Amino acid sequence: MVCPTMVTLNEASAQSGLSYDYLRKLCLQKKIVYVRAGCKYLVNLEKLVEYLNRGEKEDT
């Protein structure tokens, strides 16, 4: 079993080059995989990379 790499929004921002606010917005819109630990958002880094590579699907 492989454990996912969970990082804070600040760490995800530093690694991806995306802003903290944009990543938080993606969490609130449930577009990326995350969990809340108290008041912190922990983002699944592998799923974030997958989302960034895939892009958003358009509704047609």
Automatic annotation (TrEMBL):
Keywords, comma-separated and alphabetical: DNA-binding
Tell me the domain of life.
Answer: Bacteria
This chain's protein is named DNA-binding protein
Q: Please name the source species.
A: Hominisplanchenecus murintestinalis
